[in-house]
Amino acid sequence: MKFNFSALAVFALAVLGGTSQAAVVYDNGLPNQQNGNEMTQWIQAEDFTLATAAKITDVHFWSVEGLSSYQGSVSWGFYSNVGGVPGALIASGNTSAVTRTATGNSLFFGSEFLNDFDILPVSLAAGSYFLGLHNGLLSVDSRNEYYWETQATSVGANGQEDVSPFGVGSWFDNGQEHAFYLTGEATTNPIPEPSSMALVGLAMCGIGIARRRKSA
Fold first, then answer.
1. What are the helix (H) ranges across 29-186?
2. What is the spatial distance between Cα 216 and Cα 75, in angstroms, rounded to a whole number?
3. Which 3 state secondary structure label does DSSP give 5?
4. Could you say which of 44, 46, 72, 105 has the lowest number of CB atoms within 10 Å?
5. 21-188, what's its fold?
6. Three-state SS across 169-208?
7. Which of 182, 145, 152, 171 is nearest to 51 (CA)?
8. Is residue 89 predicted with pLDDT exceeding 60?
């Protein structure tokens, strides 16, 4: 039987380098259909903690809104956590490519939507941060009854809010926690087991044998 050393090498190097797969890197809980904080006149921010370094690629959150409350895009930002309030802005953007799914749930002030959108990957070390969200461009700052919905179980501190004009005042406790989760990839490569290292060594040896045969 002819053994394919090249294929073995590719497989072994993949094992050595580890594999990455998009997954939930932080989950702040499901919505509770009870309340929310307006995010057109305000930037609403929620704290989150990463146990390991991660590259965040997607944001998912629940909103409650009236018929014409959504402004056609979402502004987002990641902030450092300085003593329980948002600090320096690490990364930010605005996107109109938001997948909006009506859940069929209604509250007294509007209908519930799940909002999902991609972002340019943001790499964060293990630690605590804030996610800030705003309805529309930051130049849109009049109250429009678009709410970041609260979550079902407390998993952290209350969120913070910045009222327009943005970035010129202080952040304040908004009295709520909000429903969202983040997806992406853990960025720490696993340490290969001894059996994996042996497999790599066998593969590299095989490559050398194959090259000598070709030369001969």
1. none
2. 63
3. helix
4. 72
5. Jelly Rolls (2.60.120)
6. CCCEECCCCECEEEEEEECCCCCCCHHHHHHHHHHHHHHH
7. 182
8. yes
Q: In whole angstroms, what is the distance from residue 138 CA to residue 178 CA?
A: 20
pLDDT of residue 17: 44
**Is there a contact between 92 and 78 (Cβ–Cβ < 8 Å)?**
yes
Q: Compute the mean pLDDT over every residue in the chain, rounded to the nearest whole number.
A: 84
pTM across the whole model: 0.78
Burial 68-101 (b: 16+ CB within 10 A, else e): ebbbebbbbbbbebeeebbeeeeeeeeeeebeee
pLDDT band at 153 (very low <50, low <70, confident <90, very high): confident
Q: What are the tokens at 92? A: 């930010």
Closest CA relative to residue 187, chosen from 19, 58, 15: 19
- Percent of the chain exceeding pLDDT 90 equals 70
Question: What gap in Å lies between CA 28 and CA 47, rounded to an integer?
Answer: 9
Instruction: Report how far apart, in Å, the C-alpha atoms of 98 and of each of 15, 74, 93, 95, 197 are.
Output: 35, 8, 13, 7, 44
- Rounded to whole angstroms, the Cα distance separating 23 from 57 reads 10
Q: Which two tokens stand for residue 34?
A: 């009870």
Residue ranges per structural domain of the chain: 1-18+191-216, 21-188
Measured CA to CA, the distance from residue 46 to residue 39 in angstroms comes to: 12
Kindly report the length of the chain.
Answer: 216
